[in-house]
Amino acid sequence: MIRVFAALVRRDLRLASRVGGSGALSLVFFLMIVALVPFALGPDLNLLSRIGPAILWLSAVLATLIGLDRIFQADEEDGSLDLMTASPAPLELVVLAKVLAHWLTTGLPLALASPLFGLLVALSPTAMAATALTLLIGTPALTFIGAVGAALTASIRRGGLILAIVVIPLMIPVLIFGVSAAEAALGGTVPFATPLTILGALSLIAAVVGTLASAAALRWSE
Amino acid sequence: MKSVGGAGGGQNGNRTRVRLIVQNLACRRSGRRIFAGLGFSLGAGEALMVTGRNGAGKSSLLAMLSGRLKPDAGVIRVEDVGEATLAECLHVVGHRDGLKSALTAEENLVFARDLLGAPTASPRDALEAMGLVHALRLPVGYLSAGQRRRVALARLLVCRRPLWLLDEPTAALDTASQAVLSGLMARHRAEGGLVIAATHMPIGLDDARELRIAPPSPAQPVAETEDWA
Predict the structure, then answer these.
(1) How many domains are contained in chain B?
(2) Residue B104 sits in a domain of what CATH number?
(3) Per-domain residue ranges of chain A
(4) How far apart are CA A188 and CA B217, in angstroms?
(5) Do B114 and A14 touch (CB under 8 A)?
(6) pLDDT at A215 > cutoff 90
(7) Cα–Cα distance list, A200 to A45, A82, A203, B56, B202 (Å)
(8) Which of A7, A79, A222 comes nearest B98 by C-beta?
């Protein structure tokens, strides 16, 4: 079991780092969106630092969608998915490994780089730390929710757009609690821990439901 | 959960004693009946050649056996494989070769071995048997169609599975590789393995039984009227 899991994660990380992989793409996309905002809003530092966490979160949601449609579709097209169903490991484990690998190449670098990108929207050090922490806890939920859409659209050509339409509404709760946790850290009536624990709960729920639902969708599409 | 090497009942001996039994199988795709009432049974060391014209349902039959397609009716079961399921007993080599172009042949085979379990030969030895050892560290994307097919066939050797499902295995292969393939199939059958191959041409499976999927004749009621969409 662990051998299969490790083999899948290793392979997907390797694929992401090779030519044609989406390794650094979502990070660059994240940077693009964050960099565009100050141009649109003008150099009002107070305004930027107030809406900074929201901008970072919004960019994170959009950047997560990059490459998400290929998680299962690439394997469906070249027959690797047949290989995976022939494995003694259950499909849920396969899904979990693939989603984890995808998060390691998109969500994690995004959360780690967010303090740097926070400079572009004039975030204070506290806000940077808080946003990075909420992204670290919240992006797994985004990836797992997205995986369900990716599994549903695996056999559809040009499924990326359908994927975004299906998945973005489901990401709203994560966005709400992610932003409110980051803003609670800057002061306010709500203590920081409350939205943060809810965000953690959302990630855990998404991990369970997302894995089971993606595996079911992949089985069903066969 | 089962541990490493669970697939196949023949871990303790060299011979497997697998039986594949298919009864009264029917296939329906997009509402149209492709074939019905198909049945056969294969014992250890036996081979089956599935023939029929284009679109007769050869690939559909293999897809059903591999569990990718649900049969409309009928039973597929394996016997004497312990607690392994049918999917865990078989190797599939088809049109979609399951190889990642960005990975080298060796990486592809190592991944397949880790994924499928029951490792036997090293990727290097398997590629050597297919005469492709020079491609070991070459990304599969650089290989020709025939070479890719040989890498996919090398997967048959890196882990041991009793039932081989081959869809047009000789497509794109040169004559030397075809001879290698028939040698592999002969050895696999001598060890008690089963081979089912869908093909148009003789592929060196001597004394194999032939299953000819007949085209559905319009005279016989192959599809209920409401299914004709």
Answers:
(1) 1
(2) 3.40.50.300
(3) 2-221
(4) 77
(5) no
(6) yes
(7) 31, 34, 5, 53, 60
(8) A79
